[in-house]
User: What shape does this take?
Amino acid sequence: MELGFGLLSREQGVLAYSQELARDFLDSKIAAADLLAELEHLCVSNDYFKELYPFYMLRWAYDDLKEQNFSYYRSDANRENFDGILRTEVEKLLKCPR
Assistant: This one.
């Protein structure tokens, strides 16, 4: 407030933090598993926050794909394309307006 910035709403704060995590992932500062765990937790703890719901589904798809080459949570995901799907969702998250 001293700098003249307004307070963020809860949704804006969650989105800003999520985008920071997404940037850290793209910069290889955090692993995919850590990103997914944190974003899944934020999604659930914020009433299944719409912008984070894809990461909720990807979090559980990630676990499915450890044991098999298909996911019950994301039928379009398999071991070969998971990283690309994750990157696409990260890029969409970063484009969300605050």
About this structure: The two ends are 18 Å apart (CA to CA). The longest helix spans residues 10-26.
